[in-house]
Amino acid sequence: MKALRIKVNSVRPDLAPHLEKSVESVPHVQAVRVDIDDSCIVVEHDGADPEQVTAALRAEGFEPRNG
C-alpha cells in the first residue's frame, strides 16, 4: 500500500469527516486521515490516481498545494 500526503488550505475539524468521505470515494483509496494541525491529508491507497484525489478535494472546496 502507498501513501500520498497532500497539503490543503485550512481544514476545520467539523469538515474533516466530510472531506475523508469524499476522498475515500476515489477508486483504490483504502483510508484517509486528515491532519488538522498540519493542514494536510494522508491518503493510503493501492494505485489510486492522484489527479482523482485532488479533483475530489477541489470538489469539496479545498485547494491542494505543494509543500
Automatic annotation (TrEMBL):
Taxonomic lineage from the root: Bacteria, Pseudomonadati, Verrucomicrobiota, Opitutia, Opitutales
Name of the protein: HMA domain-containing protein
InterPro entries tied to this protein: HMA_dom_sf
Gene3D superfamilies in the record: 3.30.70.100
Molecular functions (GO terms): metal ion binding
